[in-house]
Amino acid sequence: MDLGLKDKVVLVAAASQGIGKATALGFAREGAKVAICGRDDARLASARREIEGVATGPVLAVRGDVSRADDIERVVDAVAREWGTIHVLVNNAGGPPPGRFDQLADADWQKAVELTLMSAVRLARAALPPMRRQRWGRIVNLASYSVKQPIDELLLSNSIRLSVLGWAKTLANQLAGEGILINTVCPGWTGTERVAAIVAGKAKAEGRAPADIEQDIARRIPMGRLGRPEEIADLIVFLGSERASYITGTAIQVDGGIVQGFY
User: Fold this and answer.
1) Which of 35, 109, 140, 260 is close enough to 79 for a disulfide, judged by CB 3.0 to 4.6 Å?
2) What's the confidence (pLDDT) of residue 263?
3) Is 236 within 8 Å of 23 (Cβ atoms)?
4) Sign of the alpha-carbon dihedral angle for 28, 84, 180, 249
5) Helix (H) or strand (E) holding 129
6) How many helices (H) and strands (E) does the chain have?
7) What is the CATH code for 9-190+227-254?
């Protein structure tokens, strides 16, 4: 299937590792012009080299922290200067740390809002003008299956990612008539650095081996295993493509069946 992504300009936020990097690799394989950002210079440079290894189009890497408004403006400006427009924006920002309610102060909640909600709001605000001018755009938000089924001790993520869904659904309704489609992908447990850190923290707290914690998680997943980053990325790339021309305002989980609700 030709996804119609050749020469499209794609910005993938927080793409130096994990699902973000897998997503950038997926778009690059389809012939898109791919821009990535990240906070760590070494990881960003390594990710760029890996993406260039599969790309048929150019790759741009810009250092930036998506929890900072000035960094977001700088990243989007760099992409616009390089290629003149943005067709696809992938909103990705990792995730807030775990913690129980009595462990979280106001500052923790505010940091989570800046990282998870405001990063998406600011990136979209910056990327929308060229999308509106060309009357074509795709915004894909990366969330978590926790928006449909809460995850123990991920209180910040459970709470604030739901606000991303509310924002995205409302904005999708407002922009559909302008050819700009907005969807949210909700991964389940996936073999990323973030999940490894969560597993390691839980293992330390319980005095168990990380492998045992991961097995406990896998047993709760009907498919019996964690997902692979590229399995999440495949859906993101499709939703960012010409072929996803009648899909907007959705929240789709890619979770191996762990969510037990009907929708």
Assistant:
1) 35
2) 75
3) yes
4) positive
5) helix 119-134
6) 9, 7
7) 3.40.50.720
